[in-house]
Structures are given as C-alpha cells and as structure tokens.
C-alpha cells in the first residue's frame, strides 16, 4: 500500500548446529520509518539454498527501560590531596572542557540521584 520499507541485517558466519539468540532493536532498522505495517520477515542463506535454518520464537517487544537509581553512590574516602576530581559533590573538581563531544552519539542529561549530581548518558 505505498508504505513499503525494508531493512537488511547480515550475520556473517553464525555458529552452526547450535541455537543462537539474536535480540534486534527495531530502532536499529534505519530504513524502517514506520512499524504499523510490517508484513514479512525473510531469512535466507548465501548462496540461496546453501544452509538449513531453524527459526523459533520470533517476537517484537518494547525496549527495556532502566530506572534511574534512587540510592546515590557512596562518598569517596580518599584525601583531597590524593585525588584529581573531574566530577564530584565531595571534592573540588578540575576544569573539564566538555562532557560530550560533537562527534558523540550519546545523549547527555544532568540529573540528581538522592541529592547528588549525576551525568546520565544514553
């Protein structure tokens, strides 16, 4: 119906004669612009007909959400003179130019856990 999209995954030399678990995140399917009309999944070997595949338990699920901690990490006990601190609520920190580079793909969020400042990357 005009919304045909596709994405290909290639698994080079998977283990033979064993069950293998693959956990595939739909978010990694960059050409899949919608999840509303997934119509087929094709499994094949190269060259065609060169292998037998046993497929079991194919399903879609939501990404697991890791909850934010509610208990802060223990305060460090080393003397300030023995520490170069980059980020701490206990020690005096040295200057850090950036916590996330322009080429980084991670998101950075500054949050608090039990009153302590935390840098959360995701």
Give an overview in words.
It is elongated and about 65 Å long. It is 0% helix and 10% strand. Strand 1 and strand 2 form a beta hairpin. The chain is largely without helices or strands. It has a domain at 80-121. It contains no helices and 2 strands. The protein has a two-stranded antiparallel ribbon with strand order 1-2. It has strands at residues 108-113, 116-121.
Provide a brief overview of the structure.
It is built from no helices and two strands. The chain has 122 residues and is largely without helices or strands.
Amino-to-carboxy terminus distance = 36 Å
Instruction: Give the proportion of residues in helices.
Output: under 10%
Number of strands: 2
Strand order of the largest sheet: 1-2
Q: The biggest beta sheet, please?
A: 2 strands, antiparallel
Element pattern in H and E = EE
Estimated structural class: little secondary structure
Low-confidence spans: pLDDT under 50, at least 5 residues?
A: none
The total of helices stands at 0
Overall mean pLDDT score? 83
Radius of gyration: 23 Å
Strand content: 5-15%
Shape: elongated
């Amino acid at each position: 119906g005009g919304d045909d999209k596709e994405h290909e995954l290639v698994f080079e030399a998977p283990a033979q004669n064993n069950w293998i678990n693959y956990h595939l995140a739909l978010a990694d399917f960059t050409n899949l612009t919608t999840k509303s009309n997934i119509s087929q999944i094709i499994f094949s070997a190269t060259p065609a007909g060169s292998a037998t595949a046993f497929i079991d338990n194919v399903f879609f699920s939501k990404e697991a959400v890791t909850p934010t901690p509610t208990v802060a990490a223990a305060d460090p006990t080393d003397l300030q003179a023995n520490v170069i601190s980059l980020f701490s609520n206990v020690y005096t920190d040295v200057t850090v130019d950036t916590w996330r580079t322009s080429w980084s793909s991670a998101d950075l969020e500054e949050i608090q856990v039990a009153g302590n400042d935390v840098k959360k990357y995701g």
